[in-house]
C-alpha cells in the first residue's frame, strides 16, 4: 500500500498484566477519521453487545463538548482508548513509530466516544489527542476494560467542581457564584450562615441542608445564558454582551450587567436581603431541625430562588438592591404559616420545588 493509505505517529510500548499497548499523540482529525464509523454507529458496539448494555451518544454532552473545545484553554488530558486489529496496525520498536491503516472503520472506541464526537467538526487551532492503542485485544479484555473505566468510576462532585473556581485568577460567572455562595455560608449574620454544604458534604457546623452546587447553579442562570462561553470570552478579552431590559429573554438575566460591571457585592446583597426576609417571615420553618420540613432544604431553596426572581422583576429593581423590608411586604401576602412547609404538602425533589414555587407565586399575586 502507498504511504498515503497509512497514518504514522510516534508511540511508546507499555507492558502491563493485560498485555502490551501503545501510547501516542495524534492530531484530532486523524483520531476522528479512523473511529468515524464507531462514533456514528447506531447499533450497539461490539463491546457493549458483549456485556449486555447500550451506551448511545448523549447529544447534550456532545453539544457541550463541541462548545468546550473552542475555548482558549480547552484540554482533553486523559487518553482516548482505541482497539484496532493486528492487520491494520504495525509498530516498529526501533523507530518507535506506529503505522495504522487510514480507514474510517479501523478503530473501535473503548473510551472517549463523546470527546471524539465533540471534535468531529472542530475547526480551531492544533488539537492533538493522547491515545492508547490496543492491538488484537480480544472482546473479553475489551469488555473488562470498558467496565472498569465506565461502570466503576466515581462521578466528580459538582460542588467540588465549582469550589475549584476559587483558585481561578480571572473573573467568570462560575467564580462569582462560588464566591457568593462561600460568603453566604461563612459570613456571620447571613441568613444562610453555615447552611450550605461546601464541597457537597455536611460538616456538622449547622443545618447544612443545601449543596454548594445548588446555590451556584440556581444563581448562575441569572447571570449568564452560557457560562462557559462567558468565561472563555473574558479570558480572550472579548467584551461580554450586556442584557437588554426591554427584551423578555434578557429580563431573566437580571444580574448579568451587575456581573459585567464587577458589582458582585450587589448581587450578594440582593440574595442576602431576600433570604433575610424569608427567615423573618417564617422563622420556625427556616430554623427548624425537625425531619419532614422542606423550606430550609434544597426543595425550599430552589423554589425560593425562583420566587426571588419574580419579586425582583416585579419591583423593577434591576441594578438596585431592594431592602429586606421590600421583600417582606411581598412575603407577608402569603397566608401560609411555618407548619405548612412540610413534605406532606410538597414532596422533596423537582415536583415539590415546582409546587412550592407556584403556590407562593400565586399567593403573592405574581402568577
How far the N terminus sits from the C terminus, by CA atoms, comes to 71 Å
The spatial strand order of the largest sheet comes to: 4-5-1-2-7-3-6
Structurally, how many domains make up the residues?
Answer: 2
The total beta strand count reads: 9
Mass-distribution shape: elongated
Low-pLDDT segments, ≥5 res: 50-54
Strand content: 5-15%
Helix content: 40-55%
Mean pLDDT: 88
Radius of gyration based on Cα positions = 26 Å
Number of helices: 17
**What is the SS-derived class?**
alpha+beta
Largest sheet: 7 strands, mixed
In N-to-C order, the SSE pattern is EEHHHHEEEEHEHHHEEHHHHHHHHH
Explain the overall architecture.
The protein has 367 residues and is α+β, with helices and mostly antiparallel strands. It has two domains: 3-150, no CATH class; 158-363, no CATH class. It is 43% helix and 14% strand. It contains 17 helices and nine strands. Strands 4-5-1-2-7-3-6 form a seven-stranded mixed sheet. A two-stranded parallel sheet has the order 8-9. Helix 8 (173-186) crosses helix 13 and helix 13 crosses helix 16 (324-331). It is elongated, with a radius of gyration of 26 Å. Residues 50-54 have low confidence and may be disordered.
